Amino acid sequence: MHLTDKDFRGEERRGGDGEEKEGSGRQLERAIRLPRSVESPCALHSILLQVRDLGLGYDSDETVLFKYCSGTCPRLASNHDLTLTNLLQSGVLQYTGHWHHQPCCRPTHHEDIAFLDNHHRWHKVEKLSAAACVCMG
Q: Which intervals of the chain are annotated as region Disordered (predicted)?
């Protein structure tokens, strides 16, 4: 899809023959094009890891499927956000440094993982792996 100035200003910048006029949408298109490395939206991802690589202190050569949440979340201002911003800017509330401006991708449910350690004992780690993700905040 080719963007023209009409897309942004409500007026067409092409001649009657369809030719682009100087300063038309091509330059504008280059100026607003998103980078190719835009991160994917919030979603559940997985990686195969050895239990010892989880960093929980277990001595095990077993491999487990660790699932986690990752990705971007849209910044949608709610009425709460708008009011809170207004109260902070007007000085009614003092900024404490604990208010996050961007929603983050977090698990809503977790799964347990069971494995056998190198001494032939079973272990169950509760709520280790993500089961579902959502944008929070």
A: 1-29
Domain-located, residue 127:
yes
pTM: 0.61
Domain count, the chain: 2
Whether the CB-CB separation of 131 and 107 falls below 8 Å is answered with yes
Rounded to the nearest 10°, the torsion over CA 46, 50, 51, 52 is -130
Dihedral, CA of residue 62, residue 63, residue 67 and residue 70, to nearest 10: 120
Report how far residue 136's alpha carbon sits from residue 109's, in angstroms, rounded to the nearest whole number. 13
| Residue 38 within a domain | no
pLDDT at residue 3 in the model: 37
Bridge partners of 20, per DSSP, are 14
Domain shared by 20 and 55, yes or no: no
pLDDT at 81: 81
d(CA 88, CA 126): 40
Q: How many CA atoms lie within 13 A of 81 on its CB side?
A: 9
Q: Which is higher by pLDDT, 22 or 86?
A: 86
